[in-house]
Structures are given as C-alpha cells and as structure tokens.
C-alpha cells in the first residue's frame, strides 16, 4: 500500500459513533448532520426522476439543467455571475474538495489551511503527497478571528492553495468583510489559489447568508468555491455537491473526476434541481429551527462550569473549550462511557482544536436538552 493512503487515520468521529451505536440510550451529536429526514418534495422528485428515465450516465460535470439551476441559484443568492460551464456537480462537497486539492497540490507543495478545520483538507493534501500548514484562528474569549498576518507568514513559494471554510465546521466562525477582503488580498499578492468551502453558506443566524469569497475574488482561475446540498437541504446521504471556478479549471477537474467517481447519480441530480427550485421555504424554516437550537445550546452551555463557548455565527456546531481538557479524544471517550453522549473531540479538527469539543446541534430540542443535562452532570462531578 502507498504510504499516502495507508497513513490516513480513521476519523475519531467514526470511532466515537461506532462505540455509541453499540450503547443503548446513547445520544449521537458527533456527526455533522441533522436528525431530520430529507423533505418529502425532494424525495418525490427523486422517485419521479427514476420513473421518468433519469437512469443513465450524465455528463461527468452533471446534467446541463442542474448546472444551469446551480448557476442561477449562485446569482440569486450571492449576486455573482457564473455560467453553467463554470459549475460542476460532484459526489458531495467531499469530491469537489478532494479533486481540487488533488489537482493543485503534489509532493513538494503545501496547502495553507485555516484551522481548526474539517479533516478532509489535511487528508486530501496528504493523499496527494503534499504538506498541510494549519493556521489557527485566534480565539479572543468568546470570538474567533482570522489572524491575517499569521496566515500570510505561513505562505511560501511552494504554497499552491489557501483553504478556508466559512461558516466553519467545527467552530461556527464566519468571516467578516474585513477578513474576506484581507484574505483575498493575501492570495492575490502571493498568486495563490483559494479553495473556499461554503457548504454552510445558508446556515447563518444573524445574517441571511454568508457572503461568498466569489464576491471578493474576481479571477475565477484563482478561486474554487465548493458547495453542497447536504446541509442546506438535509441531503447528506444523497451525495450531491458542486464546485464553481473558471471554465478551464472546471474542465480540468471533471476530466479527473471522470476516472474517480464519474457523474453524481442521475436521479439525485434531478432531485437537486427541484431542491434548488422549490426549496426556499424549506431553507427558511430550517434556519429558524437551527437558530432556536443555537439559542438553547448557547444558553445551556453558558451555565456549565469551566465552559467557554465562542458564539457560533453559522453552521450547526457549538465548539466550547472545556477547562482542564488537554486530551479531547480521551475526554470524548470517557464522556460517552459515563453518559452515553457522543460528541466530537476538538483534536479531530487539528492541533488548534485540542481542549475543545464539537457538539452538533442539528437535533431536536428534547435530544439536546437531555444531552446537555447529562454533559452538565458529568462536568459538575468532574470538578467536585
Ligand atoms: C466543512 C465541510 N465541508 C464539506 C463537507 C462535505 O459534505 P458533503 O460531502 O456531504 O457535501 C462537510 C461535511 O460535513 C463539511 O463539514
């Protein structure tokens, strides 16, 4: 086996979830997904698509009508213009990220990654034989912010890509205008491409939408935006996402994708078109639901001893620091054993996540109440 692949470590999230599944009465807040099923109108669309004969291969980059629907949605939401040929449907945002990093980074190259971050970036870079340079967010008490000077210092002549995810998994941090402007300027100064992972773009609390980096970077050869149906429409298991960039970048990416996954499933692509077309009321309700859960989690964690929670501005995660926790994987395992509550250890998101835990609040009010009561009891016992 090649070292680049065999060295990939099994996600601690999978380990925690597997242990939780074997425990009766456990509560799983460790994964990044909602406990709600996909909406009926989307399921019906998939059913109809199968019966209407959408059962063949499509173009690797997706059916023309899906690429067009995505381009229309980008314009409607972000007021930036992308042609259908500048969009490529992928097997989840995961595939878009992987093929992008695969295309940009090789042995001797590095990727600068704003962290803590979803583990796919470091692992995709590692699988490509490159080096990851993780630049931690600055944690100022109850806020995260981007240390632009530190970010720029991490870049050198071998840096091929700067990776940012806003709203962020796991922190809930959302880039400010100044941070976006600053990051765009740094990328331009060094001639570095930006990979902007915007899969939580619609899940924001104090604004209608997280502004895309495409509002700040005009050169589509220097920006690849990744997005997904997974979080916006509760379609995690359907595996549909997209990449947007210049036409020539998209062509390069889909040429490679042809021999990795080929096109995302035809039936799912048709359901995606319907989600984009008819899903606005659904997204509005979902945001209201998550806003209520965020308020619940923020209030409850605020009462717990030794817990500091930077307020999540977007996505559906709380990422509190827990006083005295220096090995979050151990903490997560002990918490699960003692209470049946499965959370993700902060270290799963890079060294700067150590000392924190990630709790996904895309669950029902009752589930979160129960989980937080158990966590509270555990933390109080721990400090007694
Ligand atoms: C930040 C981020 N990007 C990308 C993904 C991949 O999502 P999917 O492949 O389901 O579209 C996830 C999933 O958790 C994520 O949290």
Summarize the entry for a quick read.
The chain is of the alpha/beta class and 384 residues long. Helices cover 42% and strands 16% of the residues. The longest helix is centred in the last third of the chain and has 23 residues, at 280-302.
Q: Care to describe what's here?
A:
With 384 residues, this protein is α/β, with parallel strands linked by helices. The protein has two domains: 3-38 and 281-379, Aspartate Aminotransferase, domain 1 (Alpha-Beta Complex), CATH 3.90.1150; 40-279, Aspartate Aminotransferase, domain 2 (3-Layer(aba) Sandwich), CATH 3.40.640.10. It contains 13 helices and 16 strands. Strands 2-10-9-8-7-3-4 form a seven-stranded mixed β-sheet, sandwiched between helices. Helix 6 links the parallel strand 3 and strand 4. Helix 2 runs parallel beside helix 12 (328-339) and helix 5 (92-104) packs across helix 6. It is globular, with a radius of gyration of 20 Å. Pyridoxal-5'-phosphate is lined by residues 32, 92-94, 118, 165, 169, 197, 199, 228, 230, 236, 241.
Provide keyphrases for this structure.
single chain, 384 residues, alpha/beta, Aspartate Aminotransferase, domain 1, Aspartate Aminotransferase, domain 2, 2 domains, 7-stranded mixed beta sheet, 3-stranded antiparallel beta sheet, 13 helices, 16 strands, 42% helix, 16% strand, binds pyridoxal-5'-phosphate
């Amino acid at each position: 086996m090649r070292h680049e692949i065999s060295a990939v470590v099994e996600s601690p999230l999978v380990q925690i979830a597997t242990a939780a599944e074997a425990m009766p009465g456990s509560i799983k807040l460790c994964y990044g997904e909602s406990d709600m099923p996909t909406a009926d109108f989307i399921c019906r669309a998939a059913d109809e698509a199968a019966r209407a004969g959408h059962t063949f291969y499509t173009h690797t980059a997706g059916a023309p009508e899906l690429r067009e629907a995505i381009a229309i949605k980008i314009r409607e939401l972000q007021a930036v213009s992308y042609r259908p040929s500048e969009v490529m449907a992928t097997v989840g945002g995961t595939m878009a990220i992987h093929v992008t990093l695969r295309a940009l980074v090789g042995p001797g190259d590095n990727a600068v990654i704003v962290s803590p971050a979803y583990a796919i970036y470091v692992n995709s870079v590692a699988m490509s034989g490159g080096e990851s340079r993780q630049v931690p967010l600055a944690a100022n008490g109850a806020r995260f912010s981007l240390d632009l000077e530190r970010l720029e210092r991490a870049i050198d002549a071998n840096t091929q890509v700067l990776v940012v995810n806003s709203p962020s998994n796991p922190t809930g941090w959302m880039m400010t205008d100044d941070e976006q402007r600053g990051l765009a300027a740094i990328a331009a100064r060094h001639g570095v491409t930006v990979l902007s992972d915007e899969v939580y773009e619609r899940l924001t609390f104090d604004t209608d939408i997280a502004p895309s980096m495409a509002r700040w970077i005009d050169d589509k050869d220097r920006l690849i935006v990744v997005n997904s149906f997974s979080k916006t429409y509760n379609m995690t298991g359907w595996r549909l996402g997209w990449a947007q960039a210049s036409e020539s970048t998209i062509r390069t990416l889909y040429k490679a994708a042809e021999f990795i996954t080929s096109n995302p499933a035809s039936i799912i692509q048709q359901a995606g078109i319907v989600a984009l077309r008819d899903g606005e009321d659904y997204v509005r309700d979902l945001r209201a639901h998550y806003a209520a859960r965020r308020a619940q989690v923020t209030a409850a964690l605020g009462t717990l001893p030794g817990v500091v929670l930077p307020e999540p501005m977007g996505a559906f995660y709380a990422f509190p620091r827990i006083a005295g926790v220096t090995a979050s994987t151990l903490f997560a395992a002990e918490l699960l054993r003692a209470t049946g509550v499965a959370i993700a250890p902060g270290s799963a998101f890079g060294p700067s996540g150590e000392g924190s835990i990630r709790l996904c609040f895309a669950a029902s009010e009752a589930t979160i109440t129960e989980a937080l009561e158990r966590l509270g009891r555990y933390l109080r016992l721990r400090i007694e």
